[in-house]
Amino acid sequence: MTIAECLTYNNGKAMNAKDFVWPTVLACSKVLFDLEGATTTYTSVEGGQDYYDGKVPYVSGLRLIDDYTFSVTIAAEKLPYYYDLGYAAFTAFDIAYWLGEGYELKDDGEGCYIAGDFTAEAIKAQMEYARFNAGPDRVSAGPYNLVEFDKAALQATLTINPNYVGNFEGQKPSIEKIVIVKAEDATWADAIKTGSMNFYDTITDGAHINTALDIIEEGGFDYVQFDRPGYGMVNFACDFGPTQFVNVRQAIAKLLDRVEFANTFCLGWGGVVNGPYGTAMWQYKEAEEWLNENLDAYAYNPEEAVALLVEDGWIYNADGSDWTEGNIRHKKVTAEEAGTYAHNITLADGTILMPLIVEWSSSEANPVSDLLKVMLAESDATKAAGLQINQNVMTFTELLNFYYRDSSQGDKYAIPTYGMFNLATNFSSAVYDMSYEWTDDPDLVALGYNLNHLFDDVLDWLSMEMVYGVSPEEPETYLILWQKYMQRWNELMPQLPLYSNVYITMYPDWLEGYEQDSYWGFDKAILYATVAE
Amino acid sequence: MGKYILKRCGYIVVVFLIISFLMYSLYNLIPNDPARAQLEGLRSSLKPAEYEAMYQSLRDQMGLNDSLMVRYLRWMGLWTDTDGKTFNGLLQGNFGYSNLFKRDVIDVIVDPMSNTIFINIFSTILSLAITIPLGIYCAVHKKKKFDSATQVVTMLGYSLPVYIIALVFMFLFCVNWRIFPVMGIKTAGIEYANNWEAFTDKLLHVTLPVIVMTFGSLGGMTRYVRSAMIEALSMDYIRTARAKGLREKIVIYSHAWRNALLPVITSILGWFLSIFSGSVVIENTFSLSGMGALYWQGLNNNDFELVLAIQMFYSIVSLVGSLLIDISYGLVDPRVRVDK
User: Fold this and answer.
1) Low-confidence ranges of chain A (pLDDT < 50)
2) Contact residues on chain A for B289, CB-CB shorter than 8 A
3) With a cut of 0.90, is the ipTM above it?
4) Answer CATH for B105-332 from 3.40.190.10, 3.20.20.140, 2.30.30.140, 1.10.3720.10
């Protein structure tokens, strides 16, 4: 990699290749871990693991070629990888500012290392200072300088870095000063009305968006709208109880009017997705038509839900007689299917009946849970279908322990207890990597992989092949695998996507050229914004 | 007196140790895995074996694999750190590490604490300056129109939730009349010419929160002072003092107020001690960075070392405060002896 020779820090000091390489050496070292830093860099750079383990004093995969050129070799086991470009992400930091005087990046022919007293104890104080320092002596290289951070007021002031030569397009900022303030849900609108602030980045709540639009309508403000790169969902445990059966999961999907749910929850600022994607993702934009044609939308249809249950054998009452209206449905199951599910009934002849009761782990003080309770758990359609969903309200930490089946936090968590969890996810990084998420390796499952406990070879293969079997030069092949992955996922329904929000950012109408989306955030978009003449 | 204080200090140490162990144990009962939380964001970029190695190593570094007693003693500074060599706990001045802020707890607490004290000092002084004379005046003019009106107003402040008062006052003073800023403790982007400008700007920002806090606390103390004074004024020695021909001011302030002070002093000292504790509602409503908001943030994010440090601080403040209250009884009322 060769860097441009014109690059400087905000203080005018010229950059060279060493400025880009030493942070990666630090990230490969045990020193960062000792400083409470978490990094995975050492696993992807060749020789990084040996350096991390203290076997060698240098990172062999990092080499200085000349003042402006360096190379990185990626560990063989990390390749091929569809997102391998991410391994080559380097950022410049001033070593004297971050580590202090007396440190230098060196390469004696075998790899790069940091010369000097490179220990956690020696650099901790300077690192702490460098991290939290704000003022004229802060050395950085971005478009803005952090000139002040008022800890008492939680207010950061940024001004243009005159030495910034521009982003990858040569774009420089023109807004002289940015002040970032902390706002509160209850008072942000009054703060905008009274001029305490004039920019609100990424408003996510539907009610707040409507309030913002009211203010915008009064004049003086404008807004940009963009899709969330994720979604809220119900997660199913697919290895025990009724939710182990795909028909039950699909029936639950058909018993919930998701369009209405999304509209109600997002107050019109959101929609429904039918797979594990967000509508802001490039994959979705490329494949939208195909997804609409090939994924089942599981439209609200209680009759079809009942048909799915009947087809799956949920046709008995608790005493083994044929199911009658007003009762909970039961299904004859094998001992293996019955597992540890708490509600099973064993009849006198040894037949095991599983009742259609789903235990739902629901986080406290969560408006999604409240709406889900009304629209699904306690709805007439659900009751009429012979399905009972029991809401169990708990803290989010408790929910996660049951979801992870984390025995380290208590034996009870290791026992499958809940069939449904309401959660949310974001794909805020461009890297869409679902590898190992559907593994059937019990050791990996015990580590927290495949949290849905859905063991499907096709889904597992697609999730691995999508990132490890395709070259970055083959986006078409990648997209075909991505679509197949979505289709298989949609059939098996390990999750029920509930809503995917639409966000807005409101800004003063004298700001021109401000364009933002989920992957092109405020920090990038503001460079292109100008003040109207 | 010295012996009594020494004995009470000994009790404070014992009670503090018991409280600290109970609090530490309670928080550790909450199922939570900070190592898992820290690594969750990196899991997708790690192969399973790498994740497991990092996870175990992080648990070792955080000392999560040790028993509860070892972790408690380590946190207190009575057991060696995870390096097995040094003692680095509460007793050595290490208040812990905030997983949320990725900083030492002491660094996290300093600024919110200064904000909280700044606001509470004004609020406490203002409240006492209003409520004590008001309570005395109402007691002396019991059942007169002013007394009845004061009872209604103070009851209103006492009964209304503080967030309602805050929002109503904010609507009136900030949005309608534009007298005070809506939020924060500093005007965004302002550059001060001198310290006085900075002080007045801060004062402008905290005035409304102080007014709201004061309004909310008027009822309790006014009524408390009033009832203590009414009781004192009904005593025989007041009748005797009046019969002796003493001036009414002397009767009220020297005879009645001195005797009414004993029950009131508990509340007054309690108020002064509460200048260290923030208000979750006020701080969140006005976007102030204070102890209440910080405590709430720590609880919501399972940042237990931060929460524990705050609670231990409050425990000490309470224990020392109760000692001060007991000592003050002896100073205020010669009949109370605290040296036994």
Assistant:
1) none
2) 151-154, 182
3) no
4) 1.10.3720.10
